[in-house]
Amino acid sequence: MGAVLRFAEKILLLAGKRHLPPAKRTDPNDPPDPGMPELSAHVWHARDGELAETGMGTVARRLPAVIAQAAGLAWRASRADTIATVGLNVAAGMFTAFGLLATTGVLTALFSAGPTPGRVRDALPSLALVAASVALRSGLQAAAGWTQARLEPQVQRLVELRLYEATTAAHLTALDDSKFLDDLQRAETRGMNAAPQVVQHAVDVLTGTVGMAAAAGTLGVLHPLLLPLLLLTAVPEGWASVRSARMRYATMLALVGVARRKWILSGLMTERRHAAEVRAFTMRPFLLAEYDRFAAHQRRVELDLARRQTFVKITGDVLKGVATAGVYVALGLMLWRGWVPLAVAGTAVLAIRSGQTSLANLVFAVNQCYEEGLYFGDYLAFCDAAEARIPHRALPARDADARPDARPDPPADLPAAFARIQVRDVTFTYPGSDAPSLRGVSLEMRRGEVVALVGENGSGKTTLSRIMAGLYDPDGGEVLWDDVPLTAVRPHEVWSRVAVIAQEYTHWPMTARQNITMGRGPRHRTGEPEDPGVLAAARASGAEEVVADLSRGYDTLLDRRFEGGAELSGGQWQRLAVARGFYRDAPLLICDEPTASLDARAEHLLFDRIRDHAAGRTVLLITHRLASVRFADRIYVLERGKVIEEGDHAALMAQGGLYADLYTLQSRAYSP
Length: 672
Ligand SMILES: Nc1ncnc2c1ncn2[C@@H]1O[C@H](COP(=O)(O)OP(=O)(O)OP(=O)(O)O)[C@@H](O)[C@H]1O
Prior knowledge:
This protein is α/β, with parallel strands linked by helices. Helix content is 63%, strand content 9%.
């Protein structure tokens, strides 16, 4: 049998179908093969070696680990339901064996000598036992099904929380890393859903094993030779299932990049915020053609998979048929040679059929458990990787100690309000970038100051502000709040002392109030007076006028996708974003292009407010509107990631460098 399987496997290997199939044109209407080496090669080859190992032996070796993971997960989700599921399934299996053995009693009575009514009467007690065990088994199985169904949503909740807890705490650089994003997509779309499946299939493995053990035990009692014959029929089906699962998993891995591109394109074609641009730039044909290009590639790969899986299944079925026939021939021979009496042979047929059903279920469950275990393994690997990217200092002490990487000193305390912030010789390169975005930047801010960063596009202003806000860690150099380096304190301590009015901010699909408070502040109840903090922030930012025009004021939902939702203009959204920054009332306010969408009056008002806001706090202002940075206490001019000029407006104008050039250029546009 092993040789036959190896032969079939060789045919598959020779056909060269273990690798991503060269995309064949199965339909003349298909677009030409796009090739797409950028989407298949790296992901595929990264797992090639690992997949080549996967055979029945590997499945057998790895299955206990998968089952242990499933058991651990189920245990954490609900101990009571886990114990009940296992206990009820084992009890149901015991009644299966009991029923089979009682059947021997029925058949022995029926096949004995004597008049038929007497034989039937003799069979009645055993028959009653058979009926009772069938009824009990069914009841136990139904109860087991119920506890198993209860486990599923509890497991799902556990795995979802773990993933989102990790993704929201992982370092921001992780989300700039395309490999991390690919792994995230795979874990979120497939791996996370695999978790309850793994648990379910692990229970099915248990159920199948118990059923198998019941049938095998019965056969062993009847005649020891029958047992290996039964097991023989399982090998071809097991081989076909494992082979098929492996192909499916490999295909999924190979298509992960394609799936992500398709997902991004589908968002571009369906989301409201892109709809106007898609039309105005007549992008429809381009987007549809791009989508179809990826969809056609995916279809070709999946059709090829279906073809290869069909071949494997047919091979497995044929071999299983041969093995089953062999079992019955062997049983016939044993009967003919008088090794087993007729009643025992009859029970053996029933036990073989019951065993085959359990075996088929077991093989299916093992295969499914293994296959889902592969996806679940992706999920676990992703969560581990994401958790490893949570900065040490962000973890509670217990979790930090449990991490295998070196443990730094315990996190330091950040001063509640600082006297000065120093940036010392900071360098930074984004992950995957060749060129550094910051090259040895130093600057200083004191409490109560407004400090401005100016420079041409891509000079590093936003990057520097993110490092100062503790969102990125510098590769070299340090940022000190008084004498405490930011890399030594818990990130949320920094974030809670910084308010950022970002260049790219989110249009939160929430009420106007929630857009300002972002879940902070007192909970507002209908009819209660508005939180004074919200009113002050809205007044300072000009959001007050925006809210006054909304049908339900601060309670208006700002998302047109929901009934009664309102939409705001770009400038109106920006006023809310500014209100959010003011509401936080943090010692450091970072304003990155806060006026890009504002009208002239709102812009003027905002710069006045920012100046007022700086009293007792500190403001880092990034803007291309140089007229507005005149009032800054100090201005740093960046070029290609370096500070090339610094000083106040008058000093920089006197210097006659880049700042003076840019300022003169802008002011000339307003001069007659
Ligand atoms: N997430 C990122 N991943 C890789 N590179 C990035 C990323 N963000 C910015 N960069 C690169 O870092 C450099 C500095 O970008 P940054 O956004 O800091 O410039 P900026 O001065 O704020 O520009 P602008 O005036 O256009 O807002 C640029 O070359 C940019 O391409």
